[in-house]
Amino acid sequence: xxxxxxxxxxxxxxxxxxxxxxxxxxxxxxxxxxxxxxxxxxxxxxxxxxxxxxxxxxxxxxxxxxxxxxxxxxxxxxxxxxxxxxxxxxxxxxxxxxxxxxxxxxxxxxxxxxxxxxxxxxxxxxxxxxxxxxxxxxxx
Length: 140
Description:
Layout: H1 6-14, H2 36-40, E1 44-51, E2 60-63, H3 82-92, E3 97-104, H4 117-135
Helix pairs in contact: 1-4
């Protein structure tokens, strides 16, 4: 798993945080059509994904994708990627508002459950970004 398992580590850390009752933390695994019902039932979804994009490891980018081609290429060749999922949601007319946070990794690691130092250091930064997104429109 290694660095591409960033989302698992993130979901575990987020589940320890105090979040609004309307927030549901889901480890989406490797994506795919099993997430379709989840996306259909929410008005807004924040997706966090590790990506191989030739940027320095640990680089965090926040995107506001509107179309399937705005999503990074799926890291897995045997799985349905986010692009396919978004295409399906658009065809069904059930596309939620999506915020996409991508964390650059250098390679897919064959062994290990731990994050490299660069990726581990990005974890609290991503959590901070998510909290800002969640609380920006929350009345005081």
